[in-house]
Design brief:
Blueprint lengths: L1 E8 L12 H15 L4 E5 L5 H9 L9 H6 L10 E5 L4 E5 L5 E8 L3 H16 L6 E2 L3 E2 L11 E8 L2 H8 L3 E4 L12 E6 L7 H15 L3
Helix pairs in contact: 5-6
Organism: Elongatibacter sediminis
Keywords: ATP-binding, Kinase, Nucleotide-binding, Transferase
GO cellular component, one term: extracellular space
Length: 222
């Protein structure tokens, strides 16, 4: 049904979102917004989001909210919605979440099973950002993220796909995450699963995509 890639990144020199004060959140937003001026698209600050824009972003699954109880308990959702924004590239496929769980979530969504197009869109957007910003990085752990499960590449590659019980069993053999269509904690409805890599650490981006591609091919083989 759709393919999605997202990369979690934090900017070197700033506290992580769980330890940020309101002024620092707003400064991260200012810095990132300045960088994104070089990218065709539109920035939507959440503290002044018009109802029609909110509906459009929700319809395209490009809006994040403040309903996660784990992020709330960690202080990541403090000062909501100040310092938060969504950037949508002009092509409508790629975007950036600013000050969600991490300073940046760079992502792309494509129709059908088309990880190559999603990867190209994410790479193009990230390349512009990396020219101006330095990310928190460890030679041992890779990119540093709020959630330990994202350490390493910080990358989640996921496919939204209807699965039969047999296909679900085949996918589980590849140690993948299988969730409901709305992501972590959501219920599976009508057999539609979000299938994603479980590991980010100790793998390259190419490893993750190749493993997901092999798992999908295995699960849906005749």
């Amino acid at each position: 049904m759709s393919s999605r890639i997202r990369l979690a990144r934090n900017i070197e020199g700033f506290h992580f979102p769980s330890a940020m004060e309101r002024t620092e959140r707003c400064e991260v937003l200012r810095v990132v917004a300045d960088v994104l001026r070089d990218v065709p698209g539109r920035l939507y600050p959440l503290n002044r989001l018009a109802p029609e824009h909110e509906r459009a972003l929700r319809r395209t699954k490009m809006l994040f909210d403040n309903r996660d109880r784990f992020m709330a308990s960690a202080g990541i959702l403090d000062d909501w919605p100040e310092g938060r924004a969504v950037f949508v590239a002009a092509d409508g496929r790629a975007g950036v979440w600013i000050n969600e769980e991490d300073h940046l979530r760079v992502f792309a969504i494509t129709c059908g099973y088309d990880m190559a197009s999603a990867a190209d869109a994410v790479s193009g957007l990230l390349e512009v950002i990396e020219q101006r910003l330095t990310f928190a990085f460890s030679r041992r752990l890779g990119f540093l993220t709020s959630c330990p499960g994202n350490l390493g590449t910080g990358m989640r590659a996921s496919v939204l796909v209807p699965c039969s019980p047999v296909q679900v069993r085949r996918l589980r053999q590849w140690n993948l995450e299988l969730r409901g269509a709305r992501g972590e904690g959501s219920q599976v409805v009508d057999g539609i699963h979000a299938v994603a890599n479980r590991r980010c650490l100790g793998l390259s981006e190419a490893d993750i995509l190749e493993r997901l591609d092999a798992a999908i091919a295995h699960a849906f083989a005749a």
